[in-house]
Amino acid sequence: MELTGSVPALTAAYEVIRQPLGEILPRLSAVLAEVVPHRAAAELSTHCAHSPFKTYGDAELTGRMSTADLAPLLASGTPGRPWQGTLTLAGAERCVLAVTSHATLRGAVLLLVRDADATPVDDRAAALVQALWDVVTSHFDRLAAEAVPGALARSRTAAGTRAQVIAELGEAYSAGLTGLLAVLRSRTLDDAAARATATDLAVTALVELRAEAERDQEIAEEPAAQAFARLADVLRPLVRYSPVRLELGAPDSTRTVAADVAHTARAIVRTLLLKVLEQEAVGRVHVGWQITDDELRATVRDDGPGTLTHGVLAHGGVTERLDVLNGRLDVDAVPGWGTTVSATIPLRVFPDPAPDPLTALGERELQVLTRLALGHRNRAIAQELHISESTVKFHVAKILTKLGVESRGEAAALFHTVA
């Protein structure tokens, strides 16, 4: 498709955003390859709580890229002003084009990694990349703000799983590097220079690992005060030309909340405010958030006639959104005095007191347990999975500990009960 006119460009944008979420970046890359040839594409889109970083293209590049490569571009990029230059990616200097968009509240950046001898991108092509990325991120923002219950449930589940995986990886790498430090500091090693160099490398690796975890948390979560400030920016235009006075009560909390919770709370409050503004004789509306360790409570209080009902306010997807997050809607209407509506969202990712015990196991541990439950011995499992018997024994020991059982037989029985 030639992207030389407005109609082809609009058609291309439509072809991109109509794809399932997992296919948007590949399709966008294919469309942009016609005007900006590139080897790989990567995005950092902070609307997404569970997978903000995505890549597509040359596996040699994408397999060695991370959030850390794009986070500085997101922080320093200027929306509407594409940047091209060189970056160190996957161990080498690469020609890149980066475009930043603030169509989502927290921003998003797209990076196209080009060949080393690529000619600079002209202004017209760069502007087209910027325009398409703005369209895509606007689409992302709408999906995040208006997520249907099914998508929101998948997002919340994936966010919890991702957090668990990140924690396990962090523990594994920290343990390994700490062990490395202990060995290198051993008095039995007499090569002081080698020991000092290796120790420095290990300390640096630990620092980078912890910094990576902090960067990931910054993307997956929002400070409560900032999340409410973004809500205020959304609500003010709704009363700009209205006689209604809007009062805002920001949360008195320094904690962070999951991005999906913040998105949902903003969408619910906006819907409730629109319902409240439909009443006659409303002069003042107060919107506030209260946050505790366990829940976020969003309150909309008016001085109207006090005739709103739960049924009226629950329309517009409010109940469905709250159900997905195990939240609730409370309405207190006093005729002649006004209505107070409270939407409460738990801040626990996994509120179920009895989760599936197998969710505690990693992928390799599940593979071992599956074969163990079929009666296979350690040697057979090792041959099937192409690992050593000692590694199988290690996994079995971890499985027994995580499942809280004492024998292979009990683990197999539990597997058959749950699976």
TrEMBL record:
Keywords: DNA-binding, Transcription, Transcription regulation. SUPFAM superfamilies: ATPase domain of HSP90 chaperone/DNA topoisomerase II/histidine kinase, C-terminal effector domain of the bipartite response regulators. The keyword Transcription regulation applies. InterPro entries: HATPase_C_sf (IPR036890), Sig_transdc_resp-reg_C-effctor (IPR016032), Tscrpt_reg_LuxR_C (IPR000792), WH-like_DNA-bd_sf (IPR036388). Residues 354-419 form the HTH luxR-type domain. Coiled coil: none annotated. Pfam families: GerE (PF00196). This is LuxR C-terminal-related transcriptional regulator.
